[in-house]
């Protein structure tokens, strides 16, 4: 009988969770966008982009280099993650995150969202900044299969207690019969790092 009353009281007066969970949309200023564009074309930006590309190819060959790149592979999603390490600093790591987003726009994608999520996990605060892109459907001829390009693209920058941890780029393909097959992921990598 006591457990019935405890269950009833638990439903009427649930214990309050003290963990933090908050999600918000945000935008970049025109000045911030121009700053990222200039950084991506600068010597520093090109060198860091080329380093990530080189380390990705090293990883596909079974070698590790710093900053370490991790390969993400499944039948419907492919991608990579870059660990925060030298020669990156917090500022250049953030610029890399936004530079990847600008590159998606250059490839004809539409930005669907730019958001930030805060979560308390084991007395630490995890912050996830995320950009989400979809192929353009506005110019699709619906009498033919829709070109999904490479699929949907998610770009995330994860920080723990305001310290960058890693950056993840994930490409998810549509497996719907309305869509053409996605272009190969290796072509995506070539296009993403083209400068």
Structural topology:
Layout: H1 2-12, E1 21-25, H2 30-41, H3 43-60, E2 69-73, E3 77-83, H4 90-106, E4 110-121, E5 124-134, E6 152-160, E7 163-172, H5 185-192
Antiparallel strand pairs: 1-4, 2-3, 3-7, 4-5, 5-6, 6-7
Outline:
This protein is an alpha+beta fold.
Share of β-strand residues:
25-35%
Rounded to the nearest angstrom, the distance between the terminal CA atoms is: 71 Å
- The SSE string, one letter per element, is HEHHEEHEEEEH
Helix content: 25-40%
Structural class: alpha+beta
Rg from alpha-carbon coordinates: 20 Å
Number of helices: 5
Strand order of the largest sheet: 1-4-5-6-7-3-2
Q: Categorize the overall geometry.
A: globular
Q: Low-confidence spans: pLDDT under 50, at least 5 residues?
A: none
* Tally of domains: 1
**Main sheet record:** 7 strands, antiparallel
What is the strand tally?
A: 7
What is the arithmetic mean of pLDDT? 90
Plain-language structure description:
This protein has 195 residues and is α+β, with helices and mostly antiparallel strands. It has helices at residues 2-12, 30-41, 43-60, 90-106, 185-192; strands spanning 21-25, 69-73, 77-83, 110-121, 124-134, 152-160, 163-172. A seven-stranded antiparallel β-sheet has the order 1-4-5-6-7-3-2, covered by helices on one side. Helix 2 (30-41) crosses helix 4. The radius of gyration is 20 Å and the shape is globular. The model has no long low-confidence stretch (mean pLDDT 90).
């Amino acid at each position: 009988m006591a457990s019935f009353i405890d269950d009833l009281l638990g439903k009427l007066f649930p214990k309050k969770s003290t963990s933090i969970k908050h999600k918000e949309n945000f935008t970049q200023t025109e000045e911030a966008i121009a700053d990222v564009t200039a950084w991506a074309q600068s010597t520093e930006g090109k060198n860091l982009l080329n380093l990530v590309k080189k380390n990705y190819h090293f990883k596909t060959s079974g070698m590790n280099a710093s900053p370490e790149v991790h390969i993400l592979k499944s039948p419907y999603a492919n991608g990579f993650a870059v660990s925060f390490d030298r020669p990156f600093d917090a500022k250049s790591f953030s610029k890399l995150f936004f530079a990847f987003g600008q590159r998606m726009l250059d490839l004809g994608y539409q930005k669907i969202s730019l958001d930030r999520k805060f979560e308390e996990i084991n007395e630490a605060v995890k912050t996830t900044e995320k950009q989400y892109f979809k192929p353009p459907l506005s110019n699709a001829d619906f009498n033919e299969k829709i070109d999904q390009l490479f699929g949907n693209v998610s770009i995330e920058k994860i920080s723990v207690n305001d310290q960058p941890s890693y950056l993840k780029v994930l490409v998810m393909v549509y497996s719907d019969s309305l869509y053409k097959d996605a272009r190969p992921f290796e072509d995506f990598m070539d296009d993403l790092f083209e400068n």
